Amino acid sequence: MLTDAKVKAARPRETAYKLADSNQLYLHVSPAGGKHWRMNYTYGRSAKNPHTPAQKTLTFGPYPAVTLVEARRRRDEAKAMLLEGRDPATERRIAAKSKASATVNTFRSVAQTWFDKKKGTWVQRHADKVWESLEENVFDAIGALPITSIDAPRLLDLLTLVENRGAVETAHRLRQRIFGEEDHEVADTGRPDLARADGSGQLHGKPRASQMPRRRLSGMRTRGRKQFASALSVWGLSERVARRCAKCVRRSRLATGLR
To answer: What is the pTM of this model?
Structure first.
């Protein structure tokens, strides 16, 4: 087995050579003096000869950036994957791809994808307001973060800041667009778990819209509606249809404020 002293003392030679540790771990020393941890293993079948196992090599990184202790830990992780029937080289590529995808899929890029999908169903004025609300309240705080690094509590903290400055209605609209409600599902584009989270209970209730005082309708009373219906019946309308017409007239007068 190797020791840290032996690894430090390794000097380059005319040709590359190996210093074996244990359980297939070794230090590869190049003629230029580079030292890299590697592990040889077998997995699957050889493409050239299906009757023989495929020989593979896994690299754990350079020394001294990766110490002897760390190299052994990574070797043990690779061995555990092999026992589970997984190829450690394939698992490493999958992990690297996921990490790269997480870096590309920021909250802003996911929101852009969602917005491009939805804006065709909205009028331009509404679409502009939706995007402006995200730019003004969300993107500066979390727009550049990978979508995988954002959890529901972090989003709720952001919405609470919006609410605390007095923009309660804006906070609720943002919650709908981020967490998912009706056709608002920003988080569902990249994080279905966030879309299922409901932050409404953490925010104050929406402010009620002020109601216009109902105007007293003094025009068409019950007697007037009957007379109107009777007049319409002269034109051949049934009593039921005539009553409906009278009701429509009454509602129109109420909506327009006519007395």
So the answer is: 0.49
